[in-house]
Amino acid sequence: MLPCAHCPMAQRIHFARPDGREAQGSLALPPTSHSAPSVVLLHEWWGLTSTVEHLADRLAAAGYRALAVDYYRGFLATSKLEAMRQRMSLDLMEVVTQDVRGAVQYLKASGGRVAVLGFSLGGAVAMTAACHLPELDAAACFYGLPPARYADPGSIPIPLQAHFALSDEWYPLPVIDALEARLREGRVAHEFYRYPTRHGFFSSHWPEEYDAAAAEQAWERLLAFLAARLGPEAPR
Predict the structure, then answer these.
(1) Are strands 65-69 and 114-119 parallel, antiparallel or unpaired?
(2) Phi, psi of 202 (to 5 degrees)
(3) pTM of whole model > 0.85?
């Protein structure tokens, strides 16, 4: 059963960054254990929307501590132009090494393994974090790819699950094929999935992109990946 659309469980929190400054986000906890495995959730270029918070709720309902990082500091884009401007003003490496790493360290303090999960812009952040943050145990990326100057996907030392669309105006097939080839070349432990749909197929608040069937299939694959990589039977 999905969380009530009008009753979010995720609560806004603040947490410390490695540089001593403060970061913020929304934390959803499972009902059974506060030392459960954790997921750091990374939003798209729209910002930390209620849709992202409800995804944190879904992860909590599945047994994970889910912290959605708000690296826009409360800003929510209402148009693609606003979203693009905010994205271009973002220091990606600061987000990774400070906001995301702070979230990982916050969750690690309670024990358990931690994965990073991102969508579009957040997918690029997630893949960059997978390259640079030694505290992470796994990563999942939905239709996002960082600039080469920030991260080499072939150097990722942790298991990665990747989801991309076959009709993606941001990442056309040659780009996706090159990414998978680089993962194989670097011998990265990975799962790579393609869907016959558009870029933001998992994003229910993006109606021109959303594909319910593809989103459900990706969700089931994601849960299986998280269980295998973060659960008690995961390789140490």
Answers:
(1) unpaired
(2) -90, -10
(3) yes
